[in-house]
Amino acid sequence: MTSAGTPRTETARAVLYVCVDRGTLMPNLPTERALAEGEAVARERGLTITEVVTDEYGEPDPTRRAGWRRVRELAQNGAVATVLVRWPAAIAPQSAHELRHRETRWLHERGVRLRYTWAPLATSGGETS
After folding, report:
1. Which of 17, 52, 114, 123, by CA, is between 20 and 30 Å from 78?
2. Exposed, middle or buried by CB within 10 Å (0-12, 13-18, 19+), for 13?
């Protein structure tokens, strides 16, 4: 639903959220994989990635990360209808699953879909409920 209470249908506008641990051996590899998977899912679903937003993994609360706050801003303003993210832990780690559920609900309340791009999740529908 939009803030006016009218249903919002999925359109081609999507944001790709990349939150990865950059590690030390191959610091670019996690980002490259997340980007490639996100782009592939966008193509398959007919979505256009209008913005790529990044954060470094580590802060459990997504609202304390500048990148996730940008994702929220885009969703709130109706600039995107879908958020693409590699897997649930990119939003919040399993140890903070309540934060992930809070953010998922927040998106859904605004009519924004959340789709996972990691192959095992994407092939099973890749969408949260």
Report:
1. 123
2. middle
